Amino acid sequence: MRPRILVVYYTQTGQLRQILDSVLSGIRDKVDIDYAVIEPVTPFPFPWSALQFFDAMPETVNHLPAAIRPLPADVINKDYDLIIFGYQPWFLNPSQPTTAFLQTEFAKIFKGKPVVTVVGCRNMWLHAQEKVKGYLQSAGAHLVGNIVLTDTNPNLVSLLTVIRWSFKGQKEASGLLPAAGVQDEDIAAASRFGRTIYEHFVNDNLIDLQRSLLSQGAIGLKPGLVMLEQSGIKRFRFWANFISEKGGPGAPARASRVLMFKNLLLVGIFILSPITSTVALIKLAIKRNSLLKEVEYFRQLDYQEGRL
Ligand SMILES: Cc1cc2nc3c(=O)[nH]c(=O)nc-3n(C[C@H](O)[C@H](O)[C@H](O)COP(=O)(O)O)c2cc1C
Which domains does the chain have, with CATH numbers? Predict the structure, then answer.
């Protein structure tokens, strides 16, 4: 019998669907695929205004997401051999629709199933994946693979292009800046992962899948990212609570704190970044060995709560 694969995902601009289509492109004729799209009851805006964008931070970081639509009954009642779960980080956490899905009763579809996570993002995904691992573990899933596609441009360049994309809706290159998002050639090359997933599945060897995916470059991870996320997540938690004291999503009373967060974040990134990068380089040299251990952990699938 042909393997039955369920692909569950959320995407705002379509990038993640493109990535998933590429992953599955080489095995379409050998498997049966159903798609289940996670849909917020009220869609998030795109392009975003700056206020809307940063106002989404507190509930994303505190895992209090906006509601999603129910999953179709035929998907819930069907028995799948493998689930591919596609998502993207928002503010170092799973995007709100992703978290919403993982918190609903629909997460029971994961029970006892092998799951491969596919992430499409700018370049900061470690903490989000830790949270997803935790939810999947609670749902009784067996995480057997993780594939992460990032924008491989330098950090500040990808920040500028993601800002242009999010606030103006412009993905295409302009002036000196390249196109935003994951590079087209990396998306196209993701088809190699689908074949590997298929081979491991039919050979009943999913236990070794992540090793094979890693050898094909499924995760590129630099030690500096671990440090960046460690400090970023602490700040986001503080600001999430500080903003939430003034009300829920969109509350006028919290707008001034949201804008304060936005301004400080942008100053931190664009003005202080030469200083922070120098400090980071020094810390990196001192902590290199322990960070390399962290990198090895994040490339694997184990889940140790509170690791980040
Ligand atoms: C509100 C918001 C916050 C984001 N935060 C992050 C982040 O923390 N790390 C990251 O690598 N990318 C971040 N991104 C980029 C997304 O992960 C993703 O690459 C982009 O939104 C396109 O995804 P999609 O169209 O498939 O939904 C963020 C995007 C949005 C809209």
Answer: 4-221 (3.40.50.360)
Instruction: Summarize pLDDT for 3-18 with one digit per residue, the tens.
Output: 999 999 999 999 999 9
Nearest to 145 by CA among 110, 114, 113, 116: 116
Does ligand 1 come within 6 angstroms of the Cβ of 120? yes
Residue 47: asked if its preceding bond is cis (omega within 30°), the reply is: yes
* Coil vs helix vs strand at 249: coil
pLDDT 10s digits, 59-101: 999 999 999 999 999 999 999 999 999 999 999 999 999 999 9
Helix, strand, coil percentages for the chain (3-state, nearest 5): 55, 15, 35
Amino acid occupying residue 184: D
Q: Tell me which H or E stretch contains 37.
A: strand 32-37
Does ligand 1 have an atom closer than 6 angstroms to the CB of 97? no
Using alpha carbons only, how large is the chain's radius of gyration in Å? Answer: 19
State the average pLDDT for the chain: 95
Atom of ligand 1 nearest to the CA of 181: 19
Pairwise CA distance, residues 290 & 282, whole Å = 14
Residue 275 has what pLDDT? 73
The span from the CA of 302 to the CA of 308, in Å, is 13
Model pLDDT, residue 112: 98
Tokens at residue 71, please? 């999953």
pLDDT of residue 273: 66
Closest residue by Cα to residue 237 from 96, 94, 62, 100: 62
Question: What spacing in Å lies between the alpha carbon of 29 and ligand 1's midpoint?
Answer: 31
88 alpha carbon – ligand 1 mean position (Å):
6
Task: Indicate the pLDDT class of residue 169, thresholds 50, 70 and 90.
Answer: very high
Task: For residue 1, give the amino acid letter.
Answer: M
